[in-house]
Amino acid sequence: MAEADPNLLHGVAGDRYFNREQSWLKFNERVLEEASNPAHPLLERLRFLSISGANLDEFFMVRVAGLKGQLKEDVDLRSADGLTTLQQLAAIGSEADKLMTEQQRVWHVLRDEMIAAGVTVLTEEAIGAESEKWLRTHFQSQIFPVLTPQALDPAHPFPFIPNRGLCLFFDLTRLSDGEQVQELVILPHTLPRFIRLPSESGCDAGCHIALETMIRHFSNLLFPGFRINDSVLFRILRDSDIELEEEAEDLVRYYRTAIKRRRRGRVIRLEIDKGVTAAVEDLLQTMLQGDDATAVEIGGFIGVSDLALLVDEDRPDLKFVAFSPRFPERIREFGGDCFAAIKAKDIVVHHPYESFDVVVAFLNQAAADPDVVAIKQTLYRAGKQSAVIRALIDAAEAGKSVTAVVELKARFDEEQNLLWASALERAGVQVVYGFIEWKTHAKISMVIRREADQFRTYCHFGTGNYHPVTARIYTDLSFFTADPRAGQDAAAIFNYITGYVEPTNMQLLSMSPLTLRDRLTDHIDAEIGFARAGKPASIWAKMNSLVDPAIIEKLYAASAAGVEIDLIVRGICCLRPGVPGLSENIRVRSVIGRFLEHSRIVAFGNGRALPNDKAKVFISSADWMPRNFDRRVEYMLPIENPTVHDQILDQVLVANLLDNEQSWELEPDGSYNRVPLDGKPFNLHTYFMTNPSLSGRGAALRNSEAVPTLTLRRRTRAD
Q1: d(CA 537, CA 524)
Q2: Could you give the CA distance from residue 329 to residue 338 in angstroms, rounded to a whole number?
Q3: What SS3 class is residue 481?
């Protein structure tokens, strides 16, 4: 074993863990880096920029707001790495400012490249005479009637500005008497942030103008009789978390009230034009009652997330080549009968490469099948246009017993989930809201069907949500099985959620908050035992976040024992890899690319070198975070079917580790470096778009050699 680094082994928490919030900012830096990646088409790079903006907004509205709340209430909870609340806020502020500065730099670069490619965002200076005429007419007829200027004086109370609301502050002088007047114009969310100019405007195709640019340009029409001295654009972010009170008597009523209250959450961030005077900034903070809000000046485009609207430009040449997901061929071989195909053999569907339509087809068939007697379904995020909800309603209206566990605590989806719950209840679905203090995050669907003289249970276990939109851009696994053990375990989990009946003697599934952490720890301990016995010992895991200190410590112990550990952690990772004497046998990489890596998988070598058919492979709904182990209902399921086992281990996990085009490696100091392009380029997402998966192919797999065998040479840091 290599000699331990004394600077990292003297027991200080910060030497063993990366700070969670700073690790998240590192993740968003990687997202932003993709906006500068020349391998991506131009508008896709713009999309990455907008995603980095949306991510940062949510980070401030939830994580930073939570820390500020702790400070406000004099609650000093240290993070796992030992930082106080104040220290975390200071570190976050500094790094977030650098990130926002980089966003503006990238936007300036992309804007110039877009102009060269024929997609323009006009500045005031670039408005020509012919465009001016069209814009004036459009402003007077389509924008002016919607705007409501409001004077800022004792007779006019300061208006309410919604979360992420954009406003223009005007400093004016009345020409008739020379009196100075201050006005506020809230940019209505009903108006688009960008207006596209038609060809008759004299502008080339692909020409846009920002709403605030138009309002500023025609402010003389908005304020006739005034001289415009100055205008300042600003935007606010509000505390958007909902704190659940355990004594809430009616969860639905509580959340309806809490959602309304969240809209008026305290202002935690004020983003404002660079160069604003101190007097105006102080005035706005006072009016917004945002004395503890962080004010930041932005020398560029405010509200980077809104740049996503420009990605809708009809320019396929500037976007990824369109991709159509496949439908599992083996279900087609059974004439589209999902139950017959699942009964014959377990199936795993790899989204988005294989269509989410198969999940909808499974539920639609259940709704229409007269032999189906009951359906049970968890719903965490279902989206606004949900075929899943429609199938459950159809099933209930057809007289079947339908139970839906609707999670009200799914952040930012609470309001939509309340609407779905009401629609389901009206159709006769038994709607359950789960636990007050825990989220139900497990993605499980059960269909109970009468076959001959007995009932058979068909199950779907997902690593992602029952959401038709995210299923097209998130990589997730959908596992279908008719294994009676899985059906009995799933029924026990539903009974736990609906009736608080704690499961006993689970045959396959592990679940949080009862057994999942212990089961995972047991498997890590088993690998430690193999290593100490001189046998091969390996752990491969893929997840979104790794935060839990106890699991991290167990992985450190495994590394010290000689277990080879490869982790694919897309987002937050608090574990320090590659530290001699602590984690030299742990490698961590992150994949950021066309699709958002979302599936949760873990494999244990089981005393043999990976990959092998004896390895223990599991899929799960849970990331490795304290909340997932202790405050959520989650599942972990072993994969026993040989074909499904091979696909997840030899295809999905190996492909993630082979990728050298969109992968980053985490270094011991917390920095991330792109994985070097050694040898032949391999793009994980391109591979799965062009190579059909193993499971669900039926005869097509037997008659084809289209699925290449992937092999992996373990990379060491010396490489």
Answers
A1: 10
A2: 11
A3: strand
Mean pLDDT of all residues in 638-647: 92
Burial 657-695 (b: 16+ CB within 10 A, else e): bbbbbbbbbbebeeebeebeeeeeebbbbbbbbeebbbb
Between the alpha carbon of residue 403 and those of residues 388, 424, 443, 506, the distances in Å are 13, 9, 14, 21
Q: pLDDT, tens digit, for every residue of 21-57?
A: 999 999 999 999 999 999 999 999 999 999 999 999 9
3-state helix, strand, coil in the chain (%, to 5): 40, 20, 40
Write down the catalytic residue from 217, 350, 351, 441: 441
Axis-axis angle for helices 42-58, 20-34 (nearest 10): 160
Contact 34, 45 (CB under 8 A): yes
Concatenate the DSSP letters of all residues of 524-592 into one string. HHHHHHHHHTTS--EEEEEES-B--HHHHHHHHHHHHHT-EEEEEESS-B-B--S-TTTTTTEEEEEE-
- In three-state secondary structure terms, 51 is helix
Question: What letter would DSSP give residue 60?
Answer: I
The C-alpha atoms of residue 175 and residue 166 are separated, in whole angstroms, by 28
* Number of other residues whose CB lies within 10 A of the CB of residue 715: 17
Q: Which domains does the chain have, with CATH numbers?
A: 35-318 (3.30.1840.10), 329-503 (3.30.870.10), 511-702 (3.30.870.10)
DSSP letters spanning 63-80: IIHHHHHHHHTT--PPPT
Distance CA 524, CA 528 (A): 6
- 666: helix, coil or strand? strand
The answer to whether the beta carbons of residues 30 and 593 sit under 8 Å apart is no
Q: Mean pLDDT over residues 597-608, rounded?
A: 94
Q: Is the model's pLDDT at 704 over the cut of 90?
A: no
Mutual angle of helices 357-368 and 387-397, in 10-degree steps: 10
Distance from C-alpha of 412 to C-alpha of 366, rounded to nearest angstrom:
30
In angstroms, rounded to a whole number, what is the distance separating the alpha carbons of residues 300 and 274? 8
3-state secondary structure of 645: helix
CA angle 671, 677, 678 (to 5 degrees): 115
Residue 310 DSSP code: G
How far apart are alpha carbons 697 and 328 in whole angstroms?
Answer: 6
441 is catalytic: yes
Average pLDDT over residues 703-714: 46
CA distance 301 to 212: 11
The span from the CA of 549 to the CA of 629, in Å, is 12
DSSP 436: S
Residue 244: exposed, middle, or buried by beta-carbon count in 10 A (0-12, 13-18, 19+)?
middle
DSSP H helix total and E strand total for the chain:
23, 27
Strand partners, 475: 597
Closest CA to 692 of 197, 186, 349, 248: 349
User: Residue 534, by phi and psi: left (phi above 0), alpha (psi -120 to 50) or beta?
Assistant: left
Distance CA(274)–CA(135), nearest Å, equals 26
The amino acid present at 45, given as its one-letter code, is R
Q: Give the list of residues 6+ apart from residue 89 with CB closer than 8 angstroms, or none.
A: 64, 67, 68, 71
For residues 531 and 535, what is the distance between their CA atoms, to the nearest angstrom? 5
Query: Alpha-carbon distance 27 to 58, whole Å?
Result: 14
CA atoms of 453 and 431, how far apart (whole Å)? 29
One-letter amino acid for residue 274 of the chain: K
Q: What is the pLDDT of residue 394?
A: 95
